[in-house]
Amino acid sequence: MKATPAAAPRPSRARARTTSVAAFVVLAALVPTTATASGTQEVEAELPYVCTLPSGQLPATVQVSADFPERAEAGEAFTPSDVTTTVELPAEAVADLTARDAAEVRAATRLAVGVAQNAATAAATWRGGAEPVALPGSGPLTLIARGDVPSVAGRSDGDLTFSAGALAIDLALGAADPATADPGSLTVDCTLAEDAPEQGLLATVPVGAGEGAPSGSPSSPGPAESSGAPDGGQPDGPGDRRPERQSERSPEVLENTPGAAADRDDVPPCRYDEQHPPTDVSLNAYVTGYANVKKMKGAAYLPPSCVLIEQGLPVSGPPDPEYLIFDTLSYANFHYRERKQTPPFEATFLSFDFTPVKATMVLEQTGTMRIDSRTKIRLSDFTTITDTYVRAPLVLHVLDLEVNGTPLDVGSGCRTETSLTSEDPDPANFPGDHLVLYGRGEQVIGLPATGYLLLSGGALSGEATIPAFTGCGSDGEDLDRLLTASVSGPGNYIKQVQGQTCAIAAPVFPSPQNEGQCTEDLQPYEIPVAER
Q1: Are strands 435-443 and 450-451 parallel, antiparallel or unpaired?
Q2: CA 239/CA 323 separation, integer angstroms
Q3: Strand, coil or helix: what is 174?
Q4: Helix (H) or strand (E) run with residue 386 in it
Q5: What is the largest CA-CA distance in the chain?
Q6: Of the candidates 273, 259, 263, the residue with the CA atom closest to the CA atom of residue 304
Q7: What DSSP character marks residue 284?
Q8: DSSP 31
Q9: How confident is the model over 300-349, as pLDDT tens digits?
Q10: H-helix or E-strand containing 177?
């Protein structure tokens, strides 16, 4: 799921060394460090766009930043990282939204990216999600969306270029007074302006042997087209450096499946039992993912964890002339050895490149998780859009630390003082400390669903503030302030992936006609793979 110590008597040299090593272990073991590797190019492109809003076509500025490798080998897949899409909409756009009685907005972005190598092309979609922001009283509206993007592999030698194309911005609007009419949602379509520098070029990654073209000198035919079909034409100009002609093969765009699913023997059981008997609306699923710690510039991996879900019944939502709206409230709990927590998970790495460090942690619930889903069926074409918010009160509990195989005693009560917290889009109705994760699912008639839906799963994301730590240390050594200064703080991006649920009352077993949803003993058939 991007401190000043108080004065104290000077300790002996031996004690000072012990404390300094322990200090580094505590702050580092929480997440594996991920220093920027050599051979990485940091890209930041500012591009002009034209966006269609209710008041007409308006100019917008879009800034795309990401990290790319400086070079790759043919057939080697890589994933652009730290991808951020920042959209600045003009004041006229804010007026369009306030005219719908909106006071805040949550954005999801879909950027078409053209991938080209020599004369062959492919298309990728870079998706991002933004935290809710209040509409400004004056001036432009800035939306900052972060997310993960597909991996890409060049199929032959030659420069691989990435160019920005069409941008869609899905805006979920929030009213100043939740008791008033729902302002609904709006999709803003944007096109790259004709005067965009270098036709929207984002990055150039040389593939294979040779020096390749310098960044900013693409062999790309231009921005992504909506079809994404390969271009079968011949290359022109000096971009083709191959000694012999060969058939052009499109770059390969790979969806986010980094690694393989965990083996079933390596995940905890996920089934109902006598202490937790199922009902007619019981579901179970596995969830896994990553949680960044901004101060440490790293991420902690959460292995597959079991979640037991009681799905609610849909009720009619607020009236809307363009949609049928239904709201569904469900509840969920982690389930591990009769406790509402994740299984213990470890982070192991080398500190200072030579000292092995290992930390063991769990996420513990302090209350039941709440899942609010709003489904909107567009009357014009019956496209279904579902926005889901998961509210989870979770504290982080540090169980064990080891340095070079030597345990460091943090005590039995080392944890955050309160739950991880997020900015809630509806704080009046949902007060208190809790993590908020958001997902959007879409389904067009006749096509598979995309995004997140409670039944089929998908990715949920959000940002969290890590609270101060308490109860850390033993034998008179207080590590609370050190942990708090080194780890606690806002802006920690979290991405969790839920797998397909198993409906206990109507299980679907694998067959030649159906993909499996349940095992024979009614556990979730799918074990999801974490995505960064």
Answers
A1: antiparallel
A2: 50
A3: strand
A4: strand 384-392
A5: 76
A6: 263
A7: E
A8: S
A9: 788 899 999 999 999 999 988 889 999 999 999 999 999 999 998 775 54
A10: none
67/352 Cα distance (integer angstroms): 24
Tokens linked to 531: 């995505």
At 404 the pLDDT is: 66
Amino acid letter for position 218: P
> What is the number of H-type helices and E-type strands within the chain?
3, 30
For 69-78, 304-313, 517-526, which range has the lowest pLDDT when averaged over its residues?
Answer: 69-78
Q: How many residues does the chain have?
A: 532
Q: How far apart are CA 187 and CA 386, in angstroms?
A: 14
Do 250 and 120 form a contact (C-beta atoms < 8 A)? Answer: yes
State the Cα–Cα distance between residues 198 and 477, nearest whole angstrom.
58
Which pair of tokens denotes residue 183? Answer: 């302002």
Residue 490 confidence (pLDDT): 92
Whether the CB-CB separation of 434 and 141 falls below 8 Å is answered with no
Q: Give the C-alpha separation, 108 to 119, whole Å.
A: 32
Mean pLDDT of all residues in 340-366 = 69
CB 49 within 8 A of CB 64: no
CA distance 81 to 87: 19
Which tokens in the block code for residue 488? 């606690």
Listed range (338-347, 362-371, 395-404) with the worst mean pLDDT:
395-404
Angle at Cα 214 formed by Cα 211 and Cα 217, nearest 5°?
Answer: 125
Which tokens sit at 362? Answer: 């769990």
The tens digit of pLDDT for each residue in 266-275 reads 899 999 988 8
Percentage of the chain surpassing pLDDT 70? 78
Is the CB of residue 497 less than 8 Å from the CB of residue 458?
yes
CA distance 192 to 60: 10
Q: Which two tokens stand for residue 212?
A: 């390749």
Amino acid at 287: V
DSSP 312: P
Q: What share of the chain is helix, strand, coil (3-state, %, to 5)?
A: 10, 45, 45
Cα torsion 325, 329, 334, 339 to 10°: value is: 180
Element (H, E) at 395: strand 394-403
21-35, 183-197, 372-386, 511-525: least confidently modelled range: 21-35
Q: Are 122 and 99 in contact (CB under 8 A)?
A: no
| pLDDT score recorded for residue 334 | 97
Tokens of 201: 């070029």
Cβ neighbours around 380 below 10 Å, total = 7
Residue 358: pLDDT band (50, 70, 90) is low
* DSSP 8-state symbol, 16: H
- DSSP labels for 134-167? EPPSSS-EEEEEE----EEE-SSSS-EEEEEEEE
Neighbours of 5 (CB within 10 A): 8
Q: What are phi and psi of 198, to 5 degrees?
A: 55, 35
The answer to whether 202 touches 66, Cβ cutoff 8 Å, is yes
